[in-house]
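Format notes (please read before filing issues)

Several people have asked whether sequences and structure tokens are stored in separate files. They are not. Every record keeps both together, in the order shown below: the sequence lines, then the token lines. Line labels are part of the format and must not be stripped during preprocessing.
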Amino acid sequence: MTIAKVSLDCKNIRDWESFHSEFAQVFGFPAFYGRNMDAWIDCMTSLDAPDDGMSNVHCEPGKVLTLELANVASFAVRCPAQYKALIECAAFVNWRRLEVGSPSVLALSFWYTRES
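Then the structure lines:
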């Protein structure tokens, strides 16, 4: 499926296990997904390459997929390591692609308020 935006509710993330389960479910990662951040990076790096078989969600080549996150503030407090890894690894996905001459593929969108 080719789309421009994916929504993920961070309220379902409580630990590393639920982090990887949520992303695997929302993005349709393959059965061999390693459930670690290296594997997450590999899957997200291929968002514009359906033939790689790394997810069921794709954007058009040369386009950016926006990952819209809900309930980020409570996630950041509840799971600071997962929150930090998500931010850093999303940035790394784009850096890795730019290093080999490919365009960025992933944008994060969220509103971080103390009330959320």
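For reference, the curators noted about this record: The chain is about 40% helix and 15% strand. Residues 5-109 form a domain with the Barnase; Chain D fold (CATH 3.30.370.10).
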